[in-house]
Design brief:
CATH topology of one domain: Oxidized Rhodanese, domain 1
CATH class of one domain: Alpha Beta
CATH architecture of one domain: 3-Layer(aba) Sandwich
Mean pLDDT: 80
Number of helices: 11
Length: 346
């Protein structure tokens, strides 16, 4: 018996000798090398000569962006916060419903987390919405990807009007747009599309279906069917920025792509803002003034990206804070620059 105890003690001592302590230094390529470590290193390097707005090294290390990195249609939510049935899991803590309008300078496009007003239409734009899945009571569904072409540009006006009219939404309706999660950018992208159609009474929910459920607000699993109607677009309230405006030098530029892409190539004088850095607990964070502190509130801001969903989150946050914000496709910049380069050699 004694010999067994001695052998066991010797084994435990030997095992502890080969386990590194929590504070031990890591060699290059060790202790978590890979994309997370690379992001932190890249942040430090890029910060030395390129403006990054409202971020720190901790904002990028270990980030798991919740939206897609391409404009291709299809599911853009990258999240494991779902039950096997595809319904978002309840948040860890109860969310108090109510208005947060006091946090924002111009909250006209923000729908408070609370019950719908009489006559208000809930538009579920979740890409993974399916029959039998829980949704906000009375909601009609159109996947967010249906509003955009594969190259990220909006579908033409007649197609967008047809999408909305078929589910019974008219231009005179008060519409509240929501997605499975706010971080997916689905709701803000569709809100942007509605404003391009001149839909004045449209707002994005302050959160997603996950926050709605965490606040114990009314849900249902049956699909709501509204009588089809004619959707007649109005005068545009938003319009995509164009190449000439972006290159004019008259606007402030925000790059909302991945930091890796920003570090490789960007538009001159652009600053970088991660859409994820604007969020806290699945909603826009309270201290956006700190994030946008280096921006001039009296000058137009153009947000560009290769991802409409991520760009729309930054656009929405800027608008709520009183900025005149526009959206621009990075792909258009690349195409124009390439064409100009070819023309110089012809």
């Amino acid at each position: 018996m004694m010999s067994r105890l001695i052998c066991l003690l010797a084994f435990l001592v030997a095992s502890s000798a080969i386990v590194p302590t929590a504070g031990a230094a890591c060699s290059v390529g060790g202790c978590g090398s890979g994309e997370d470590s690379w992001l932190t290193s890249a942040q430090s390097f890029i910060s030395s000569d390129v403006p990054l707005v409202g971020v720190s090294a901790s904002d990028t290390a270990g980030s798991d962006f919740a939206y897609s990195r391409s404009f291709r249609a299809g599911p853009q939510v990258k999240s494991n916060n779902s039950t096997p049935s595809g319904i978002p899991a309840l948040a860890e803590a109860y969310v108090t419903p109510g208005s947060r309008e006091e946090l924002f300078i111009s909250p006209r496009m923000l729908k408070s987390l609370g019950s719908l007003s009489e006559g208000e239409v809930a538009l579920d734009v979740s890409s993974r919405c399916s029959p039998g899945q829980s949704r906000i009571r009375g909601a009609v569904s159109i996947p967010a990807s249906s509003f955009f072409l594969d190259n990220g540009s909006l579908r033409n006006i007649s197609e967008l009007a047809g999408l909305l009219g078929r589910v019974g939404v008219s231009n005179s309706d008060s519409v509240m747009v929501y997605g499975e999660s706010f971080a997916s950018g689905e709701a803000t992208a569709v809100l942007y599309a509605l404003r391009c159609l001149g839909h004045e009474n449209a707002k994005a929910l302050d959160g997603g279906l996950d926050n709605w459920m965490a606040a114990s607000l009314p849900l249902e699993s049956r699909e709501t069917v509204r009588r089809p109607t004619a959707y007649i677009p109005g005068s545009p309230l938003e319009a995509p920025a164009n190449y000439d405006l972006v290159r004019s030098g008259a606007v402030q530029l925000i790059d909302a792509r991945r930091i890796q892409d920003f570090g490789k190539e960007k538009i001159s004088n652009a600053s970088w803002i991660s859409p994820e850095s604007l969020l806290a607990e699945g909603r826009l964070k309270a201290n956006l003034n700190d994030t946008f502190a280096r921006l001039n509130a009296s000058q137009t801001v153009v947000v560009y990206s290769d991802d409409i969903f991520g760009a729309s989150i930054v656009w929405f946050a800027l608008e709520l804070m009183g900025y005149d914000a526009r959206v621009y496709r990075w792909q258009d910049w690349q195409e124009r620059q390439e064409n100009e380069g070819l023309s110089r050699f012809n």
